[in-house]
Specification:
Order of helices and strands: HHHHEEHEHEHEEHHEHEE
CATH architecture of the largest domain: 3-Layer(aba) Sandwich
Oligomer: single chain
Number of helices: 10
Strand order of the largest sheet: 5-4-3-6-7-9-8
Structural class: alpha/beta
Strand content: 15-25%
Number of domains: 2
CATH topology of the largest domain: Rossmann fold
């Protein structure tokens, strides 16, 4: 059978839809564009083009992977975050769109304080998305990025090289375990694991079957990592230092209760995401 671009898109769209893949048309467009090394929309300028056997075999392999619910980003090997093209793949958490809110608020704080240089710690650096987005805007910031996963650090290292951000230092460790007691930071940021364990069954297969569980879950209520960060950051924040942490909207009340009992942070506030859900807290240490 002769397969044109148009015919292949139509057939594979139905195939993925039958497998329960959402936005199946868009998915197959990205897969075919990847195989043909074309921009997605340019496929429609070549709708009558006939694919050769090599191209068909390559597309079939990718289509099969997607039908098994492997994330599109893993298959393509890249993901766009705040205009940064990042290398991603099995074993590393795929940065989410809502995390851009965290980056935007960090950049806004730097602007308000007129900070050009600072020492920053990112806990759970993953692909490096957050630190890279900051480093591209503020190249004189010194950033330490920590992750417990060697696989995640492999991707972070590759992305740091890809975007020429040598001011980011990588360390392997769980939260603060690789940070020396004497080290102090102006800013600590984190998009930690914050899903509650009971949510496991309700997740999409793309997440449940493929993304690293340790990057997603943190105890029965999803708060284990967040509470450790709040408690331990006091030992590493400089006076007037800032803490930025992403969380799940339903956790706001529990987090707020912690801050109300804690006198270390003299100011805290919650920030909503693009869908008007509580998504980020910012806490500041006092001057002493």
């Amino acid at each position: 059978m002769t397969w044109t671009v148009s015919k292949l898109l139509q057939w594979s769209q139905l195939y993925l839809a039958e497998k329960g893949i959402e936005e199946s048309r868009l998915q197959v467009e990205y897969l075919l564009a990847h195989v043909l090394a074309k921009k997605r929309l340019s496929l429609y300028l070549e709708s009558d083009r006939v694919l050769n056997e090599t191209e068909l075999a390559a597309f079939k392999t990718l289509l099969q992977r997607r039908s098994q619910k492997e994330p599109l980003q893993y298959i393509l090997g890249t993901h766009l975050f705040m205009d940064l093209n990042l290398k991603v793949g099995p074993g590393v958490f795929i940065p989410r769109f809502e995390t851009e809110v965290l980056v935007e608020n960090v950049l806004e704080a730097f602007q308000k304080r007129e900070m050009k240089t600072a020492r920053i710690l990112e806990l759970g650096i993953g692909t490096g998305a957050i630190s890279l987005a900051i480093a591209k805007k503020y190249p004189d910031m010194a950033i330490v990025g920590v992750d417990v996963s060697a696989e995640a650090l492999k991707y972070a290292k590759e992305n740091i090289g890809l975007h020429a951000c040598s001011q980011i230092e990588l360390r392997q460790g769980d939260l603060f375990s690789s940070i020396e007691p004497h080290e102090k930071f102006d800013v600590i940021i984190s998009n930690p694991p914050y899903l509650a364990e009971p949510l496991w069954a309700s997740l999409k297969d793309e997440v449940k079957l493929h993304e690293p569980k340790e990057a997603l879950f943190s105890g029965e209520e999803g708060l284990d990592c967040i509470l450790k960060i709040i408690e331990t950051s006091r030992y590493y924040l400089k006076p007037e230092g800032m803490l930025f942490v992403e969380f799940s909207p339903e956790q706001r009340d529990q987090i707020e209760a912690v801050f109300k009992k804690d006198t270390f942070f003299t100011m805290w506030k919650f920030v909503r995401d693009y869908e008007h859900r509580d998504r980020l807290f910012i806490a500041e240490r006092g001057k002493t």
